[in-house]
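Q:
Got a chain?
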Amino acid sequence: MLRPRLPLLLRLVLTLAAAGLLPLGISFYQLRTNKDALLEQVQRTHMVAASTATARVEAHLSSLRTVARSLATNPVLYGSSDSSAAQELLTGTLQAQPTIAVVEVCNAAGERVVRVHRAGMQEEIPSACEADSPELGVFRGATRRWLRLRETIPGELGELILIAEAEPLDALVQAHEMGEEAHLVLASREGEVLFGHDLTLDDFPAEVVANARSGKLTSGASRYRNPEGEDLIVAHSGVSSAPWFVLSRQGARVAEVAQQRIRRATWFSAAAAVLLAVALSSGAYVTAIRPLRRLIRAQRELAGAEAGAAAGSEIEQLEQSFAMLEQRVHDREDLGKVFLGRYQVVEVVGSGAMGTVFKGWDPKLERPIALKTIRLTAEEFKREKLVESLLKEAVTSARFNHPNIVTVYDVANEGAAAFIAMEFVDGVSLDRYVSARVRLGWREVIPLGAAIAQALTKAHEHELVHQDVKPGNILLGRDHSIKVTDFGISQLLTSASASPDVICGTPGYIAPEVFEGAGYTPRSDLFALGVLLHECLLGRHPFAGRNLHMTVMNTIHEKPEPIDHLHPDMPPQLGEVLLRLLEKDPSDRPADAKGVAQVFDRMAIELGLVWDQDVLAEPAIPKSREGGPPPTQLLSLRTTTLMSRPP
């Protein structure tokens, strides 16, 4: 069975757009058929207008009947109509219903028992207990018209008469939205126009009036030509709860105007539907899809899956992550039985393109360690040379023990992979720390830059270029330590490639001259340091593009995003050193890491800044960077040189 692989957000947008636009598209197509169809559409519009006016009238009458019925059936009233409780009940009704002017209770003989009315109503409406008045009717008082409604009191004790303002009915049969030439009237079956435009029933076709008065046809619409030769469209609709009906008429020449109006309304509705779809989709993205994606990323991270390896829709990814977590739960029980050399594997810390990082235990020296496996897929004879190179780098790193460099303990060869036993740093990576914080302040960046520059200084003095300086390779310990890891790993993977024009690194941190074939130098590490610190201050990568091509293009040609507006109180010297680190020409960058470290050390001392952040207090799930940190990749120089911008 085929399953949709579209992202959940796209499926939601398409569904909402289809639901909102399909009916509008059908209506727009119908408007384009022919003139007769347009006239028919106007007829239907008039029928809808008449039916709508009828529904409004019925709703108004229903609300008044509900009030009258509730009063007539209230035990307080029909138990003793002239009691103080009945008076209080009727008075409260007038206070709650502003359109009701008089409530009167009559006995079976037609004599008034009790009456409450608003101020001035004694002269306007002297009495309502008239035996010959209809159950529902409109009458004229001293100055204006009123609506009378009768309701029988249970037990043949008499009746309740409710007098309400008639003006709301006049407003309910107006058709302002249909234009000045559209006329609606509310008439009685006795032939009297009660409310609406200043017309008489003689202004409507006799056949239509006869059908409406008879009540045989509840509603309808037709076209006819009056004695003056004008084509008219007429509609009628009967009021089921009263002996009334609504008539509507308009000149047929407005069909074209109606077409234009409806077309505009259709376009407006389409735009509103699109905006509503976008708004609903945005709301769904913020409240559901983005948290779902974070959950998927967190689960994949817990399961040790590679970043960006998920396929399919969010639902499929969620199912995959659940399956991986379930498998990991089963596998974790066996991890304690696995050994790499003499080192016991305790748990998986992370996994990437180069290999997997485990937390391990050295039973001989009784200390925790980090075990990093390196996948070596080259031929056997070359793989041995790579392991030898890795061992050489480890020996070099071990020779210059430095507080800002992760100490390497051992290197060994295990089957198709080599592994490095190194110092275990109890903390988080800088990438995860910045993701949780969104961005860092300059007071944090200065001691951070000083520590990384000191580590690079020590490595460069021993002719060891890192080649992959990025937040993911900076570890922040619980003990407030800052350590650089993975020295020489990129160089090792580059050597493992069968192609001579392949470089290894993380796009966005690779210096421009490396793409031009100049190779890595200590100043390439300084460029990556500048990108890293700029990213910490900015909260996002300064050269990030929509894809690898754009990222490389931005790195080679574009200036970094400014950060002054985010850190207006930042020392000018920090901004200057960052700009120098990010120079495209390596000769314009600082001469060495030592000078950079001295600049950061001097600023830290003058401002009294130290790194004392509690890194483990940060949220475990990043608040930003939905795509996750960029992975280390093997890139072809032959491909990247094609990315150069034409003159």
